Amino acid sequence: ALSNLTQEELLAWLQRGLRYEVLEGNVGYLRVDDIPGEEVLSKLGQFLVAHIWRKLMGTSALVLDLQHCTGGQVSGIPYVISYLHPGNTVLHVDTIYDRPSNTTTEIWTLPQVQGERYSADKDVVVLTSGHTRGVAEDIAYILKQMRRAIVVGERTVGGALNLQKLRIGQSSFFFTVPVSRSLGPLGGGGQTWEGSGVLPCVGTPAEQALEKALSILTLRRALPGVVHGLQEALQDYYTLVDRVPALQNHLASMDFSTVVSEEDLVTKLNAGLQAVSEDPRLLVRAVRPRETLPGPEAGAEDPPGVASEVPE
């Protein structure tokens, strides 16, 4: 039992289940293999903030790796969620029903946290695998439903928050049975992740999930520049001048939280721009670098009608 460990032993246990680094592109990476509970976090919270969290606060995006997280304490859920929640409001994120005691416990984000919260303007990606279970699944599900994180990887196990080992009569046989469950207030309709697992926003094999997450974050870093470039191009070139202000306002107010690929971005931009302008000729396309396009061999002259300089 963790309650029997000294602070030094707790710290050693905690460090075995945590790994962090700052990756290329100033992306923070935090791998958590066991979610600590309130008791541990109350004792070691200051250490975690000073030695881990502050080093990740300056990053431009965060990857939370739960691929190997197969256990944890329910009381740790509000801590993880709260550091990624803006904090201007307290949010009800889950309700847990316990069958033996026939009680329910509501889980809310914390009104205050030690240190700082991760900025709501920064992207968060959660990595999952076919081994992610229990409390880690609940955290991934909550962050997905809050639209605070993009879940990348494999469908999770669909395990249980709390398993209890029970003896069958007076025999030497035992069985484990889920004794509590998430009622999932964020999902609506009483649907939760238990049994079915958490479906990722972007499905990919677990071993490729981090690479995929980094490519998504690279795209999302480019979004402000793309939007600004479109606004300038419309201002300078679009012939239906009277519609330009409405188009620029639409671009400025668009929600890109679900964009995870170039195809998503192109589809979203075209649907919005054409609806506002009522002009089907107004098109956005994703074009590969010119040297990868089919055409003459390197060093050959451009074919007739192809300009040697194409605007970005």
UniProtKB/TrEMBL annotation:
Q: Single Gene Ontology BP term?
A: proteolysis
User: Pfam families, alphabetically?
Assistant: Peptidase_S41, Peptidase_S41_N
User: Any idea which GO molecular function terms this record carries?
Assistant: retinol binding; serine-type peptidase activity
Give the InterPro entries listed for this entry. ClpP/crotonase-like_dom_sf, Tail-specific_protease
| GO cellular component terms given for this protein | cone matrix sheath
- Region entry Disordered: which residue ranges? 288-312
Q: Where is the Tail specific protease domain?
A: 6-205
List, alphabetically, the Gene3D superfamilies matched.
2-enoyl-CoA Hydratase, Chain A, domain 1, 3.30.750.44
Entry keyword annotation includes Transferase: no
Q: Where is the composition biased (Low complexity)?
A: 294-305
Could you list this entry's UniProt keywords, alphabetically sorted: Receptor
In Swiss-Prot or TrEMBL terms, this protein is called Interphotoreceptor retinoid binding protein
Source organism of the structure: Cheirogaleus major
Q: Which gene encodes it?
A: IRBP
